[in-house]
Design goal:
CATH topology: Thiol Ester Dehydrase, Chain A
Number of strands: 4
Strand order of the largest sheet: 1-4-3-2
Order of helices and strands: HEEEE
Largest sheet: 4 strands, antiparallel
Radius of gyration: 15 Å
Low-confidence stretches: none
Number of domains: 1
Shape: elongated
Oligomer: single chain
CATH class: Alpha Beta
Strand content: over 45%
Number of helices: 1
Structural class: mainly beta
CATH architecture: Roll
CATH superfamily: Hotdog Thioesterase
Mean pLDDT: 92
Helix content: under 10%
Length: 93
């Protein structure tokens, strides 16, 4: 979850800028056990941006599950905050 939240945060400017900031907080909720050999999908999206702070949400889902909440059964969900370096976003010099 740390990786997907960090890398999605690096894309907040509209292009991927590796190591343009750092993850300062991640909260993860484990929702459902994962069977061995299960193939899962991880998604992440930006919820909001405040100055240099990027607030994100990530989901670990089973996309072929019969549970269609958020596109499949949710096995874990995380929210996190990435702080971007000064100058990455316009007006943050």
């Amino acid at each position: 979850m740390d990786d997907i939240i960090g890398w999605t945060g690096f894309c907040a400017s509209g292009k991927c800028l590796p190591w343009s900031g750092f993850t300062v907080q991640i909260n993860t909720k484990l929702c459902k056990p994962i069977p061995v050999d299960k193939v899962l999908k991880i998604t992440c999206f930006i919820e909001k941006v405040e100055s240099r702070k990027v607030f994100l949400k990530a989901l670990l889902i089973d996309p072929v599950s019969s549970d269609k909440k958020d596109g499949g059964a949710v096995h874990a969900e995380s929210d996190g905050i990435v702080i971007l370096n000064r100058g990455v976003l316009p007006g943050t010099d």
